[in-house]
Amino acid sequence: MKRKWKERLKEVEERSSQYKRSPLCPQYRPQLSKPWQPSSVWKIFHRQASAFNYVKTCKEDVHVFALEKNTKDG
User: Fold this and answer.
1) Half-sphere exposure of 32 (CA within 13 A, CB side)
2) Is the dihedral of CA 68, 71, 73, 74 positive or negative?
3) Residue 56 CA to chain centroid, in angstroms?
4) pLDDT at residue number 12
5) Does residue 39 come out as left (phi exceeding 0), alpha (psi in the -120 to 50 range) or beta?
6) Can you give the pLDDT at residue 28?
7) How much of the chain, in percent, has pLDDT values that exceed 90?
8) What is the pLDDT of residue 60?
9) Which of 30, 43, 60, 66 could form a Cys-Cys staple with 51, CB 3.0–4.6 A?
């Protein structure tokens, strides 16, 4: 049993050193097709005016897409 523990400890230490050499990226940030464009932020707004008001509060440049449904006419 002591031997298995030592082998397991060695595997963990090797994996730890591998992650230190090549760390995982800290956060996934999807990019648009061109890297010089702003990063993607997805929010849903029920009114176009709400979407544009949100844009005014952003410090970075953003792209806006709004889709309003007119439920009164069907």
Assistant:
1) 12
2) positive
3) 22
4) 92
5) beta
6) 58
7) 15
8) 76
9) 66
Which residues of the chain are modeled with pLDDT < 70? Answer: 1, 26-40, 70-74
Q: Which two tokens stand for residue 7?
A: 């082998």
Dist. CA 54–CA 43, nearest whole Å? 9
Cβ–Cβ < 8 Å for 15, 24: no
Q: Are 34 and 14 within 8 A, CB to CB?
A: no
Token code pair at residue 19: 């992650």
